[in-house]
Amino acid sequence: MCSIAGYVSGNSDQVKLMLKSMVHRAPDDMGIFQDSKLSIGMGRLKIIDLKSENLCPMETDEFVLCYNGEIYNFIELRNILKKKYNFKTLSDTEVLLYSWKEWGTKAFDKLNGMFAFAIYDKKKQKIYLARDIPGEKPLYYYSDEKKFIFASEAKALTKIISLKKNPKNIFYKNFQHFLNDTMFKNVFQLPAAHFLEYDLRRKKFRIEEYWQFKKRKINIKTADEELEYLLKNSIKLRLRSDVPMGIYLSEGLDSNLLASFHKFKSKFYFDDSKNWKRDFYKKINKIVHHLDFPVGSLSSYPLWKLAERAKNNNIKVIVSGEGADEIFSGYVRYLPISLQWELERKYKSYKSLFKKFYNTYLDSFSKITTRSEDHEYVKIKVKKYFEMFDDPINAMGFSDFKLIMPSLLQMGDRMSAAFGIENRCPYLDKNIIEFGYSLPPELKIDGLRQKIVLRNLAEKRKVIKPLHFEKKGLTIRFNNWFKRTDWDRSYYFSLLNKVWNLVYK
Q1: For the segment 383-403, what is each residue's pLDDT rounded down to a tens digit?
Q2: What architecture is the 2-209 domain classified under in CATH?
Q3: Predicted local distance difference test score (pLDDT) of residue 357
Q4: Could you tell me if 1 and 67 are in contact, meaning their C-beta atoms sit under 8 angstroms apart?
Q5: Which CATH number fits domain 220-327+404-503: 3.30.365.10, 3.40.50.620, 3.40.190.150, 1.25.40.10?
Q6: Given this model, what pLDDT does residue 97 score?
Q7: Averaged pLDDT for residues 415-438
């Protein structure tokens, strides 16, 4: 995990200010490149290849690379590239640089990892910004007629430019999450699975999507075996580290299934039976500061406490179970729609009857998902994803994957980053994503049972205990702590908003 920042026509002092505001992400090293056109830099948290220097940024005659993330298959890529290029380090940074030199934007097809990077092409006088497929790593940019600035966290931008609030963000109002627009005017987040090309001569940029989901064939009889293979490989790649690692565990299925593949020495649970009321109020300002923007989720505080414990145990890399609910249909709100769809398939004579009482799957999902009364806006946002699939189960999951999960992942990233910890998510491996959304719906939801293929694999691997619990995740007993009955996601969201307005006056 690292931090990156850049300013077209800016100077090194300005970039340094931005990097210093993100030193929690990258406490081990810092470097800046500057020429007459721009200034870019990065801070580094040493995870891979602790001894090598000159990695932040990494510069050749042609390119300058500032990079945040991990390329998990860097060893395999280096074995391909070393036939042509002379490697001086054992880092994934150098592998990414030569991958770009060799394949350009086609390198995205070969990268397996989480990343947000900036590459300056000196000859072409262009900057390329890019983010990974699910959006694990953050990257913001400010753009107006005169300025183009980017950084790993939005708060870094506030150190060198005065930003106006954008309280009327429609997406934010409806989802209680941020996507590409933010709560600052002219500040945007580069969409997941996209790259941005900025032409320094013309002072213009374009954004292009480099990955689109393509359904593949799944052998239903051997689906759990294939998933086992994919998870085993994903975890193996994410265990590549030169620093101590641990895992976040809940009482749920997702994280415990991951733990069955590797004997983690350090395991961290959130004890929600303890009354954390006083501590919560002490930490809420810091939580909001690190979040950049409030997120409509109750998990930010427990994630903060988990990261705090991991830091106290000298852990620098954490494995977590994020992504499984979206990919394998684990959310309870999917059940009413999936039940309707299942009944319509089994009892076709009742199809017309159901239509009298229910709206379309798209309408139903839009009403379930929105946090306001603007159902039409939500429907417009998710429509294209419902058109991609033949069933509403995969459509619902993929809608959340594209629209909500990037924000949830940012929450996990920020809470871990606040303590200098890198968060790795095996379920978000590119191969698992493509496998998951190619699954037939009956391997995801059957009646009231969810994540069927994961449960089948858990039974096979004797991960029995979590199967008997209701879905829990990283929940909080706010109602018990504060002795009230209305402490739900919306209440929590409004509280974070109030604090945010105080933090960013």
Answers
A1: 999 999 989 999 999 999 999
A2: 4-Layer Sandwich (3.60)
A3: 46
A4: no
A5: 3.40.50.620
A6: 97
A7: 96
Place of tokens 């721009």: 38
| Alpha-carbon gap, residue 189 to 151, rounded angstroms | 10
CB 196 within 8 A of CB 141: yes
Token reading at 377: 């806006």
- Tokens representing residue 405 in the block: 């999960």
Lowest mean pLDDT among 165-174, 222-231, 486-495: 165-174
- Residue 206 neighbours by CB distance under 10 Å: 9
> What does each C-alpha distance from 375 to 179, 186, 357, 371 come to in angstroms?
18, 26, 18, 9
Phi first, then psi: give them for residue 325, nearest 5 degrees.
Answer: -65, -40
Report in angstroms the alpha-carbon separations of 64 from 32, 42, 234, 434: 10, 11, 29, 32
> pLDDT, tens digit, for every residue of 231-243?
999 999 999 998 9
* Cα–Cα distance, 114 to 425 (Å, whole number): 9
Residue 59 has pLDDT above 50, yes or no: yes
Q: What are the residue boundaries of the structural domains of the chain, listed by start? A: 2-209, 220-327+404-503, 333-393
Residue 118's H or E segment, with its range, is strand 113-121
Strand duo 245-248 + 187-189: pairing: unpaired
Cα–Cα distance, 374 to 172 (Å, whole number) = 12
Count other C-beta atoms under 10 Å from residue 486's C-beta. 9
Token look-up 């839009």 returns: 366
Mean pLDDT of the chain: 89
CA 109 to chain centre: 19
Q: Which amino acid is at 267?
A: K
Q: For strand 245-248 and strand 317-319, is the pairing parallel, antiparallel, or unpaired?
A: parallel
